[in-house]
Amino acid sequence: MLARVADVHMEIIEATRTEAVEAPQPGVDYGQRIAVITKSLRLTLLLEDKFANHRDERRKAAAQREADQEDWHELRVKLAMMAAAYEVSEDEAEADRRADEVSERLERPEVAELVEASRAEVAVAALCRRWGYPVQVERWLEMADEAMEKLGFLPSEDDDPPEAPPKPRPASARKPRPPDTG
Question: What is the reported pTM?
Answer without folding.
Answer: 0.49
